């Protein structure tokens, strides 16, 4: 009985180790950036894909539309190479090129770049997982005079009834994480992430006990370089408020 138990335990442990070693050997694809900024003055933008595994793979790349001005099926961009064979530990340059027409000229447009790993044919009784990386591509037409690094600071916040309203008057998208509104120490609203499009205005529900006083707003903005910038504001119904950068906490 005990020998049977130990044999079964050893089998499970060996299987777990084999799966762990296989996962480590397989690894996956890694991109050298978390977002792409595409100024209209550039003929193209690029990123590097790294096959961190030891086996050969195929890397497939394609774009999907992310705004109303771009068709989800046929965005006006070319991605090259759309399919690339990569050896273990190899790197591949992926280029993105705009066709020159089809996007708004007075505001930023956003798309999604997908890079998916296609493993080689699996051996019998071997599990393989296709890994896909997905990042945003921000296309910026010429003539936008506002500073994109101040886009989060330009957002306009106001309490209206049981909602907190936010408007984006600028031409850039604003990516935010960890949005939170508190009143008298109580959390009235929380959201993990949200992206506000140019000229967009939305209402975020605060709950039934919201009316009757200002709320403390906080969020983190993701800038062009992928860095996180914390913001805060005291928002009321009396006037429109813009958030300020929060001071870093001392160690």
TrEMBL record:
This is P pilus assembly protein, chaperone PapD. Residues 28-144 form the Pili assembly chaperone N-terminal domain. It comes from Pseudomonas abietaniphila. It comes from the Bacteria. Coiled coil: none annotated. Its main location: periplasm. Belongs to the periplasmic pilus chaperone family. The keyword S-adenosyl-L-methionine does not apply. Keywords: Chaperone, Periplasm, Signal. Residues 166-229 form the Pili assembly chaperone C-terminal domain. GO terms for cellular component: outer membrane-bounded periplasmic space. Residues 1-27 form the signal peptide.
């Amino acid at each position: 009985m005990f020998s049977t138990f130990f044999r079964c335990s050893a089998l499970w442990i060996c299987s777990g180790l084999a799966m762990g070693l296989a996962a480590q050997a397989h690894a996956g694809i890694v991109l050298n950036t978390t977002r792409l900024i595409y100024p209209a003055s550039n003929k193209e933008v690029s990123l590097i894909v790294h096959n961190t595994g030891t086996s050969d793979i195929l890397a497939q790349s394609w774009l999907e539309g992310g705004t109303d001005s771009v068709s989800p099926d046929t965005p006006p961009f070319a991605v090259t190479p759309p399919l690339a064979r990569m050896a273990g530990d190899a790197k591949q340059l992926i280029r993105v090129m705009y066709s020159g027409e089809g996007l708004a000229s007075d505001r930023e447009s956003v798309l999604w770049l997908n890079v998916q790993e296609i493993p080689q044919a699996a051996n019998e009784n071997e599990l393989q997982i296709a890994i896909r990386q997905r990042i945003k591509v921000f296309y910026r037409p010429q003539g936008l005079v506002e500073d994109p690094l101040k886009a989060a600071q330009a957002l306009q916040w106001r309490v209206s009834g049981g909602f907190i309203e936010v408007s984006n008057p600028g031409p850039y998208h604003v990516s935010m994480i960890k949005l939170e509104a508190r009143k008298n120490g109580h959390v009235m609203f929380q959201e993990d992430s949200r992206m506000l499009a140019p000229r967009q205005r939305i209402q975020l529900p605060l709950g039934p006990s919201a009316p009757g006083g200002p709320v403390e707003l906080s969020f983190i903005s993701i800038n062009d370089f992928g860095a996180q910038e914390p913001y805060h504001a005291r928002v009321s119904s009396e006037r429109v408020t813009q958030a300020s950068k929060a001071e870093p906490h001392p160690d």
